[in-house]
Design brief:
144 residues, single chain, 2 domains, 2 helices, 26% helix, five-stranded antiparallel beta sheet, alpha+beta
């Protein structure tokens, strides 16, 4: 009986130490995660699409992503995806408030959606939303 009582007292005496250690680990763990940096100003098209910058957005007719974590756009240029904080040149005169936009919910903001572009191109195919007026570089096409 004395042995069980000593173990019980030891556990009670050490519990604040264990709780403090767990709390310290949690703080360290939380500090390690990046928080998404929201852009300074919401994109002009955001309100029309009820977009709140908590997810990536994909413009399938332009093969372009909006990445709120990086605060700009990712599009195909010269054989690979490139980033720009402003609209890509081929989208500057387009009314993006009326464009098709696919909000990619459930995808971590730490990920880069362009790394999985074949999946998104198949899932959300382009339908020529700009009626061919604007030449859009298509991923996988050499020289674009």
């Amino acid at each position: 009986m004395k042995h069980k009582t000593l173990i019980f007292i030891f556990i009670i005496a050490m519990s604040p130490f264990f709780a403090g250690a767990q709390g310290a680990n949690n703080k360290k763990h939380k500090a390690h995660h990046k928080t998404a940096a929201k852009p300074m100003k919401a994109p002009d098209w955001a309100a029309a699409h009820h977009y709140d910058a908590t997810a990536h957005a994909y413009f399938p007719d332009y093969y372009t992503y909006y990445d709120p974590n990086r605060g700009g756009y990712v599009y195909w240029k010269n054989g690979s995806y490139t980033f720009t904080p402003s609209l890509p040149p081929f989208m500057k005169n387009e009314d993006l408030a009326k464009s098709r936009v696919q909000i990619l919910k459930g995808l971590s903001l730490d990920l880069h959606p362009e790394q999985n572009y074949p999946h998104y191109m198949q899932l959300y195919p382009a339908v020529g939303g700009n009626d061919g007026r604007v030449p859009v570089p298509i991923p996988g096409n050499p020289g674009q």
